[in-house]
Specification:
Blueprint lengths: L4 H20 L14 E5 L5 H10 L9 E6 L2 E7 L5 E3 L6 H14 L3 H14 L1
Antiparallel strand pairs: 1-2, 2-3, 3-4
């Protein structure tokens, strides 16, 4: 099933308007409610290939390959990171900087922190 870019943009625009309306909803006291997004990280399931493909299409990037770590903001997938090559795709219509930073940190933890140690070793050798 092929989805056109216009359909993706329209659906994302509608979802963005709903998110903005939810954040601006006025409570009974007359002041806007404060809403902190809940970010959840988890490995993508085999049945979520379409979800990862949709993120890649929104980001205008090639699809991620191999196991994927996903970030959900308030239950909606906003970013994904390939555990094979550390490439990221993210929804450009929502703020994803924090979600992507958390994905990178979690991927580093899952790999045993190998990336940071290599950097430290290179840094140490460089100044030694």
């Amino acid at each position: 099933m092929s989805t056109t870019i216009n359909q993706l943009l329209a659906a994302e625009h509608t979802a963005g308007l709903r998110r903005a309306a939810d954040r601006q909803r006025v409570s009974a006291g007359g002041s806007p409610e404060r809403h902190a997004a809940t970010i959840q990280l988890r490995l993508g399931a085999p049945n979520e290939v379409d979800l990862v493909r949709r993120l890649a299409e929104l980001d205008d990037a090639p699809e991620l390959e191999g196991p994927v770590l996903l970030a959900f903001s308030d239950g909606e997938a906003v970013a994904g990171l390939s555990l094979c090559d550390q490439r990221v795709v993210a929804n450009p219509f929502v703020p994803t900087r924090d979600a992507v930073a958390l994905l990178r940190l979690r991927a580093e933890h899952m790999s045993g922190g190998r990336g940071r140690r290599r950097f430290r070793n290179k840094l140490h050798l460089r100044f030694a």
